[in-house]
Amino acid sequence: MKPIILQGHERALTQIVYNAEGDLLFSASKDNIINVWFTSNGERLGTYNGHNGSVWSVACDSQTKYLLSGAADNTMKLWEVSTGKCLKTWEYRTAVKRVAYSADDDLILSITEQRQGQPSVIRIYRIDREAGSSQSDTPLKEIILTGSKATVAVFSPLSDFVITGHENGKVAKYDIKTGEEVKSVSPEDGEGHRAEITDMQLSPDGTYLITSSKDKTARIFDSLNIEEMKVYVTETPLNSACITPVRPYVILGGGQDAMSVTTTSQRAGKFESRFWHKIFEEEVGRVRGHFGPINTLSVHPGGKGYASGSEDGFVRVHWFDDSYFKSRPFGDLEPDLEI
Amino acid sequence: MSYEMNGSSSTDEEADLQYELEQGYAEIEQRYAVDAQQGFENVIVIDGTPIVNRDRKDRLVERLKLLFEKAGVPIDDDRIEMPWDDVAETNKGFVFLTYPTAQEAQTAQRVLNKTWFGKAHQLFANYFADIDKYTNMSSGDGALPTGYLDRPFVERENMRSWLADPLGRDQYLTLRDNDANLYWNGRNGVSEVVRKSDGKPVKNNKWGELFCQWSPLGTYLASVHWVGVALWCGPELDGANGVNVLRFTHPGIRSVSFSPCEKYLVTWSPEPLDHPSTSSNASVRMTFAPEDEGNHIVVWDIKNIRVLRTFRHEPRSDLPPGTPPQLKWSPNDKYVARLQPGSAISVYELPSMLLLDKRSLKIDGVQEFEWCPPSDADFRPSELKKEKEFMLAYWTPEAESKPARVNVMSIPSKSVLRSKNLYNVTTCHLYWHNQGKYLCVKVDRHRGKAKSKDKATYCNLEIFRVREPAIPVDVIEHKEYIPSFRWEPYGDRFAIASTSDPNYGQPIPGVMVRYNFSFYQRDTKRDDFGLIKVLEGKTGNYLGWSPKGRHLVIATLGSATKYDIEFWDMDFTTDQNVRAKEGQDPGANITQLALGEHFGINEAPAWDPSGRYLVTVASAYKPTAEPGYSLWDWRGQLLSHVQADKFKQFIWRPRPPSLLSEDQKHKVRKELKEHSRVFDEEDAAEENRGSAEMLASRLRSLAEWNAWYSKLHEKIKEGQKLFGKIVKRKDVGEMESEKVEEWVEELVDDTEEIVA
After folding, report:
1. Does B303 share its domain with B335?
2. A205 CB near a chain B CB, below 8 Å?
3. Residues of A whose CB is below 8 A from B719
4. Which of A142, A195, A328, B83 could hold A214 in an S-S bridge, CB 3.0 to 4.6 Å?
5. Tell me, which GO biological process terms does this entry list (chain B) (predicted)?
6. Total of domains in chain A
């Protein structure tokens, strides 16, 4: 499994996402630009220029028509994927830490940073897919968070709830219509994650989601009831986690904090992507290569490969070998239904 | 004057009368005098006589008188009185003997006490006064003798539960940094944490303060701390407060040793004990008496946690500083002996800790002594109760006009059973066979004309066959110096390492001293010990027999370049070496099984009690590159290697000797096939169980996941239908068919031509 190395960023990667077909990969970085790549050969298709600060987050709709990005310049932008044109800019008072698309492409959300007296706010907008640049400025709903700020969020599979991960390790579910928190798993009750949640990604069909955390664990939660299903305990702080389709694995990535990287050797830094068996909670393999912590992981929607973006500024795109699909590390024990 | 002059006859008569009267009074006075000084000191009571009826009374008295006469303390008829029980029509089982003098009574008491009357009756002789004194002595309700603490009775848990492991495994304790962990040593190096009844592992993060040590039979674990030693026992080596832990205060403690039957404990601290009244330590104030001040060695009664006696210890100049003093125990914990170098051996009786016969054994120049160790049979309960004589060997060096001498003495009778003179002696070492069959005295000798008598250049082995009548001695002269000698446990063989390397004893970096290893065996035909095999030019400097004999390990310790561990079998039989079977060459079966290496090894290899496994340790107590341990089987196969920072100790838990008799063991050996079938099945089951359990748990989690997932998946699909929100997601199959074609155009050349 020889990876394709994408060298197009000058600074650390913040988030990478595949499009729904898996032929393109969007990468956001602290160097203010977003790149889009062909996953088959690593060729760069283009760049989305326009942000004036670290791009913290990107999201793509299921048609690969629009791209959404949030950055440290206090803006969220909507781009046309094919032309690279910026269609719309939303301005806020603080940085946009996370953006997300709903599964039906109708809704988007932004999380703004809690800073300078501003609370952390989740804003949900309706997107008109035909309207192009004339999108609404007023959010459908504003959820003003009290307590620990939100760091990550996704839409529930039926787009009726937002599921959030918080700085203190809390995972919560908010009703989009009312803006009320309906359910949470919080460290204050002695449950769930103990430290900041760094990433949250849905399973292919949205029935469950995986969260990664600085508490060195990743967990799977059921997306309807926010019930903890599985825990993967590692020995390094985790920055990202994703669920592989087709095969019953999850991929976890992380490493020493960026601050202490220079004082740790590459081996001790544990900058590897770790494959764990999703159901048995046992590690099955590791992929090395980065020389900085892995900041973001994304899996090919068809389960044919995955990509990792690191603090070292590189993206490594991996296509799985035949052996990956054939190997049965636990014998014939396979889940019945896997998408 | 006038008196005399006045007539002689009358005065003479008067004087005579006077004299007669005086004589008479004297006689009367003598007859009826109450002897206040003498008391009943001339009366002794003989207890334990047979009970007979009137018909046989006279006969019993006659027989007793005969016995006393034989013992050298005859008694007249009128001085023996037998109290009679008129109701039962029998005697009461004891007699009074009134000797003319206290001196005679004293002799009688000594010779008659514990003599046998016939086979069934042991007689006990006591002073009448003593009996009177002890019956009238108040037991002092509530007042305990000094040194006793009033402790409520607590029921001890089973102290030997670890022996009842259904798989018959041995336990070991590891010490890493301050953490102590206890494990079961399973087959092939598979170890399992020992768990308490609540499933939590047995471990402790305080036991590693100084070091740990097992008691000789494995009952107690001693954890040594700065303030003293704690003994842990019971199934969990701990328990409800105070149940399974015994604490002994001794500040600055550096060594502990147990008596062979684990009744007593000896602790030593180089720091003298404080005066209890001024000590800042409350428990020192409670435990010790003023006369213990300044002493270094404490002898304890383990069960009562009571000081029996303390001693001062002067370090010996001929031993390296910090060498713990040795109190040596007789096999059944009856005596403990201490060497007064050059002058005496002090033998103390237990539990009183008073000198045997109230004095030390004065032996001029005595340098070293050893008790004959207890054999397995000596640990049977019936043997432990018996009053027995124990053998003790000691040696004295050459003195003016006197040769050096080795003596074998019997205690408590103090009779010398065998002695042998030795010449040109530098020093002697005493090696007892582990079952007490033989004693080998390794005599380090110098040449008669040698300038320095302190450097031995060759050795004699004097082997005392102590079990045979008159104790014959075999002498083996060896031309080389022998640094180490080891008897084969239970066997009739021994191994020695010898060298004539001039570098021996002078640690020169980079120079390896070579040793020759020789094996000797008792030749039953010739009735002596014969050489059966020599291994030449080895770098190994440590010899370790398996505790069951037969197997042997030779290790290279203390070298910076070599870390070899050689495994040898003394009885390796195959079809090839038939000669050995026929008894022609007893050394032909000695075979090296394997050669291993443990980088950084700095401790003597230790066999487990069964002799099947060996552990080699690189301990952080001494400088080593890689602290950790390796576990080997007797064939020399490395089963596991653990490297751990600050790894200190690996100690096997000893086992008490087998309770089976030789016949029973022989029977088991004969029916080994029958027994082994059961164990083979268990082993096979054990192998499968691990994976079976894992499989079951995986199946369970898989089933749970499947059930949960299918339910949730359905729910979401329903929801999507309800809301009309079918996700427009491409099927995986479609993506698979997608092919990416890549056209690579290469510009080979680019030339510009100007067309005219």
Report:
1. no
2. yes
3. 157-158
4. A195
5. formation of cytoplasmic translation initiation complex
6. 1
Please indicate, yes or no, whether residues B255 and B234 belong to a single structural domain of this protein. yes
Residue-number span of the structural domain to which A238 is assigned: 234-339
Position B4 scores a pLDDT of 44
Asked if B729's CB is within 8 angstroms of A158's CB, the reply is: no
Non-local (6+) Cβ contacts of B138 within 8 A are none
Residue in A closest to B699 by C-alpha = A333
Domain with B61, as residue range(s), is 43-136
Contacts of A22 in chain B (CB under 8 A): 735
Structure ipTM: 0.85
* Same-domain status, B553 and B591: yes
- Cβ distance B725 to A159 less than 8 Å, yes or no, reads yes
Residues B607 and B535 in one domain: yes
- The vertex-A325 CA angle with A321 and A327, nearest 5°, equals 105
CATH, residue A264: 2.130.10.10
Report chain B's C-alpha Rg in angstroms.
Answer: 39
Inform me whether the pLDDT recorded for A199 exceeds 90. yes
Specify the pLDDT at position B379. 84
Residue B257's nearest CA partner among B329, B155, B352 is B329
Is B720 within 8 Å of A20 when comparing Cβ atoms? no
The CA distance from A53 to the nearest CA of chain B, in Å, is 33
Is the minimum CB–CB distance between A138 and chain B shorter than 8 Å?
no
More confident residue, B34 or A213: A213
Instruction: Please name which of A81, A77, A51, A76 lies closest in space to residue A66, comparing C-alpha atoms.
Output: A81
Q: What is d(CA B104, CA B115) in angstroms, rounded to the nearest whole number?
A: 17
Chain A CB contacts of B737 under 8 Å are none
B375 is a domain residue: yes
CA angle, B729 then B733 then B736, to 5°: 110
Q: Both B449 and B385 in a single domain? A: yes
For residue B96, give the CATH number of its domain. Answer: 3.30.70.330
Distance from CA of B732 to the nearest CA of A (A): 5
Reported as a pLDDT band with limits 50, 70 and 90, residue A259 is low
**Does residue A112 lie within any of the structural domains?**
no
Assess if residue A65 is contained within a domain.
no
Chain A CA closest to residue B721: A158
Question: Terminus-to-terminus CA distance in chain B, angstroms?
Answer: 195
Cα–Cα distance for residue pair B110/B124, rounded to 1 Å: 10
Task: Give the gap in angstroms from C-alpha A110 to the nearest C-alpha of chain B.
Answer: 22
User: Residue holding tokens 């709709």?
Assistant: A61
Q: What is the DSSP letter of B313?
A: -
Residue A283: pLDDT above 50? yes
What is the full DSSP assignment across B513-542? PPEEEEEEEEETTTTEEEEEEEEEEE---E
Total number of domains constituting chain B: 5
Q: Does A8 touch chain B (CB under 8 A)?
A: no
Residue B185 distance to chain A (closest CA, Å): 26
Q: Which residues of B touch A160 (CB under 8 A)?
A: 723
Is residue B48 domain-shared with residue B166, that is, in the same domain? no
Q: What is the mean pLDDT of residues B316-325?
A: 80
Q: Classify B282 as helix, strand or coil.
A: helix
| Contacting residues of A for B713, CB less than 8 Å apart | 205, 207, 337
What one-letter code names the amino acid at A35?
Answer: N
Query: Which residue stretches of B229-317 are H helix?
Result: 282-287
A231-243 tens-digit pLDDT: 998 888 899 999 9
Q: Is residue B142 part of a domain?
A: no
In whole angstroms, what is the distance from residue A305 CA to residue A313 CA?
A: 20
Pick the residue with more confidence: A209 or B155? A209
- Closest listed residue to residue A200, CA positions, set A225, A236, A227, A166: A166
Which chain A residues are within 8 Å of B720, Cβ to Cβ? 157-158
Evaluate if residue B6 carries a pLDDT over 60.
no
In a domain, B146, yes or no: no
Mean predicted confidence (pLDDT) in B284-312: 86
End residue of a domain, out of B284, B315, B346 = B315
